[in-house]
Amino acid sequence: MSTGFLAVIIILAIIVLAIVTKRCAEVLIAGSLIACLVEFKGDFLVQWCSLVQESLADNVWIVVVCGLFGSLIALLTTSKGSFGFSKLVAKFCNTEKKTLFTSFIMGILIFVDDYLNVLSIGACMKGVYDRNKIPRESLAYMLDATGAPVCVLLPFSTWAVFYAGIFEEQESVKALGYSTGIAAYTHAIPFLFYPIITLFIVFLFCLGVMPKMGAMKKAYQRVAETGMVYSEQSRKYNHEEEGYYEDGNVLDFIIPMGILVALAIITGNLLLAVVVAILVCFIMYVPRKVVKGEEFFTIVVKGFADMLPILILLVCAFTLEKALEAMNMTDFIITVMEPLLTSSVFPAITFVLVSALTFTTGSLWGMSAVVTPIIFPLGQAVGANTILIMAAIISGGAFGSHACFYTDATLLSSQSAGIDNMEHALSQLPYVLIAAGASVGAYLICGFVM
Length: 450
Prior knowledge:
The protein has about 450 residues and is mainly α. About 75% of the residues lie in helices and about 0% in strands. The protein starts with a helix and ends with a helix.
């Protein structure tokens, strides 16, 4: 039996078990161990440990940035600056619609990087949602749905730079005659159906036109009946925020966050931006004794430690990705789908394929880089529209970032909103499926028309 087929079985089992048990980390670890057992037999434990080491080594930037974001958020909270900001914003955001729309607009404005988008807006808006008795599930959905979907629609984000880089090496893209990969990327933007439809759904959600469905509806019912903006299961992520509505100097929040966002946009270096923001906190807080000098580093370390649950999940997901890669799951899926390819359905199949691969592996940029050199020659062979192929690959990556319950954006959205990751994944699932289904239809129509 093909190991690629077995990899698909393993990933399906992981998805089902994670949804049923709501124990994401344990299921991911078990799945990666089983994948290693199938692939490496008696040597599986040694190989699994090697994959864990590789995952940490390959993704140390993510670990450091996310950990330091936790440190920054802890400092902002200790200074009470975040409370002051929440109180200030709450004067305008005094209804659910205003609060949701503010999150939506901030999600569009902070476009340079989805990590920056998710973590900074979560820190800004969590208290405002609580004041207005809006479930944290809706905040997590707003963060996730305006992360990658916004970034991919703008040709000067980190996502655009990445995809432009891998596209400009493809012969069929060069044949279009665009001077740069970014120029080609820009022409694909009107056909990025998944992010466009997702943002439209978010807009309707803010208006109250899009109905509350599934777990999201239950979250709103919980707030109406109990007043709890998060569930008992998520209480452990908010133990220090119970009754936290205190006054604070809003400048202690706005200045470090403003410098963080400005530096990230100007330099494109998110690690540098968060380090400088922490240094600004030190300069602002310690001389004024907002935070005692001897406590500053302790808070930094504790904030970093608060991110450990999310970082463990990320390492588990990266390890699973490498185990599935060793089992040749990607090659198996492409081989199975290849006979279905014709020029008219090729863009829709490409979107489904990339979405499936990014969702099952949790690898967004990595999986896009793997399949791009395979998909473009296939598309050229069947005469498919190159612009639509680019758009379908980008949209598939955005879907994976938004939908996969163990990808970095989803994990960070739930962490930033202070709720359990599976609660977030399941509460946004109906909206994700609607956007995905509509996107497949749009690519089918364009495939036949263009």
